[in-house]
Amino acid sequence: MADPLNIALAGLGTVGAGVVRLLADNGDLIARRAGRAIRVVAVSARDRTRDRGIDLSGIDWVDDTAALAEHSGVDAVVEVVGGSDGPALALARRTIAAGRSLVTANKAMIAHHGMDLAAAAEAGGVALKYEAAVAGGIPVIKGLREGAAANRFAHVYGILNGTCNHILSVMEKEGRSFADVLAEAQALGYAEADPAFDIDGVDAAHKLAILASLAFGTAIDFDAIETVGVRHVVEADIAEAAALGFRIRLVGVAGMDAGGLFQRVHPHLVPHDHPLAHVSGSLNAVVAQGDAVGRLFFEGRGAGAGPTASAVVADLIDLARGASGPVLSMPAETLERAAVADAGAREGRAYLRFAVADRPGVLAEIAAAMRDAGVSIESLIQRGTMPDGSVVVAMVTHRGREACVTDALGRLRGSASLTGQPMWMPILED
Amino acid sequence: MADPLNIALAGLGTVGAGVVRLLADNGDLIARRAGRAIRVVAVSARDRTRDRGIDLSGIDWVDDTAALAEHSGVDAVVEVVGGSDGPALALARRTIAAGRSLVTANKAMIAHHGMDLAAAAEAGGVALKYEAAVAGGIPVIKGLREGAAANRFAHVYGILNGTCNHILSVMEKEGRSFADVLAEAQALGYAEADPAFDIDGVDAAHKLAILASLAFGTAIDFDAIETVGVRHVVEADIAEAAALGFRIRLVGVAGMDAGGLFQRVHPHLVPHDHPLAHVSGSLNAVVAQGDAVGRLFFEGRGAGAGPTASAVVADLIDLARGASGPVLSMPAETLERAAVADAGAREGRAYLRFAVADRPGVLAEIAAAMRDAGVSIESLIQRGTMPDGSVVVAMVTHRGREACVTDALGRLRGSASLTGQPMWMPILED
């Protein structure tokens, strides 16, 4: 068997400790598959004294995280510190500059700095791998970059944040409010104390930016993503959607459409017969629609020590076997930033929900606004009430331009009939 | 850009023509992703004159298929002739002997001769790739061999034959008989004129043998697979299973269990809340349960020109980028044939269906046989009738050893109460 692949590991939180544990537990099996042992020779983390339940004997402890990049005898650095900038980015840059390969689980860093890092890695002839950055243990980076690489993709989309999916699933199953379920998830450790990154869709957008680049051969463009999270989904939305034949999921969607690259993270109504409707709890799932392969669907655990470590170590096995090819789908220097799609020009169906005062004429006012904006209504129900006692009017539109719906909502802005902000959600197609 | 990857293509049926078309349609994109053009320089097929709707100008036509192996300037040979032996195998052996890489969609050849071919390829330092051999366009070979390579697998299973899944789906949806749906599928070209390979489970078993080797690091052992197809599933089974909360799917299952490697292709009852229950029509799906990653689920098109070509060309892109690593999960010479599991010692739940005469005492006789064999009944329904008018008794057992169920069925053999062969199907777990 060849010489071991020696790695330095930055970060010993849940993921880092998971990597150490997985390499220990399945070390022999991994070595047989990789053709050589994969050995942690140096680590760096904040607190040296903390008991993580893993054996670090024989492993060098390095206080200066960035110094791992040049640590003696290291073939590759694994970065699981997190954060788009700061120590993670410093380490990534120094590792590549030192002519060593980098494996990272850091979606924020790849979403923000992936183009620069990829170009540097390719110029330096080292690998940069990030399977764990999207959808945790699901090998979807590999699926797009390699497994479906012969295809022109129509779109790629998925459930990319397990916390949001957990919250929506519990709301749906137990009829509880967003705030209530979030508070419980925080108490149980399923959601962060500061949950904004997850529930506002930023984490999903990081992942979507990476998937879009892989699928469409465009430069990663996180800033162009329209990002709306799940804060404003109320129990009534879930109930009305169910009555109309849908489930609500936070879906990140990307496609070449309406004059450019369309990228959006938003709560969507997903038809009951669509595979994403059956993705429950903290699972993640990704759909890619290729011109040759048709619809590919991947599902699995998107977070947690085991799944994330599984993806990190898969990258290491690739390195040990002799990974090759570009960092993204094509050499980074050939990827250009796409024009941004005009979302208003996209065609689709939409869900609209209004909280209205319970008095005559309200429905006529809404219907008139729809008519005047050219929005055609496919189905409408008025049956629920909001927590404040106002009446819920929910509808699904026929296919039409998003701009028309925006226009209709504009016409209703400030109307005394509405007791709160209307909710708009796109309906997921194919 | 580097020199093109020059390929010779054996077989211009649905798949071969699909490969030519895909390389033509997406050629520029594929070249950008692969880092070099992928170019068909020679082809061989039975009938030179047939119009396949593809442009073969500038491509050498070779009458002797096996001679493609040494055709001048060829880097890799693509074999889509089919058949476990004969011309396909001869070409495969000659290609590897000639020091060239082989890409194949041939599940039968890999199931029967994969170990020898892999050993020869590894000894010769050439690649042998076969993504298209299992589950068509779904990158599940890559998923197991690379994406989830850090995991110890508990089991791997899936819906591996689209024809059977189509037939079962239509029977379920339209309440029609097996023979009726099969005849229609044949007329529409969804099923072969000689459908035995599909409906008797042989095709699924070929694929399962490959998946099991990848997951468990054992030698491919097709002969050890217990293979039962879908011929004996009747409408009443589907209806009773539905009443009990299940759908019927032909599932290939492999795991290390009961003293060795367990491999079985058999109709299973799949709980409604299991992802395989939602795999309809001709789709394929694979589940792998890893110790770190948990349950991974892959779904997509398992056959047809586009999906199969997608997988073949993905292999070619891997070659063009510089593929590496063993043919299977580990070097072929290190893989040993596993002991065969004692299926009778496995624990699980089962579905049993009896067609019985409509007279007193029949149920007591069945119940007594179950009791005497130590089989505990979880639920039982007697409501349907068979086409011949006999009464259907269907039941689901509690978890127990398969051997007990076999014993119970043995006790009832030859009973005058039974008007036909009992049906036994395992219930799919996790």
From TrEMBL, chains A, B:
Its EC number is 1.1.1.3. It comes from the Bacteria. InterPro entries: ACT-like_dom_sf, ACT_dom, Asp/hSer_DH_NAD-bd, HDH, HDH_cat, HDH_CS, NAD(P)-bd_dom_sf. Residues 351-423 form the ACT domain. Pathway: Amino-acid biosynthesis; L-methionine biosynthesis via de novo pathway; L-homoserine from L-aspartate: step 3/3; Amino-acid biosynthesis; L-threonine biosynthesis; L-threonine from L-aspartate: step 3/5. GO terms for molecular function: homoserine dehydrogenase activity. Belongs to the homoserine dehydrogenase family. This is Homoserine dehydrogenase. It comes from Sphingomonas jejuensis.
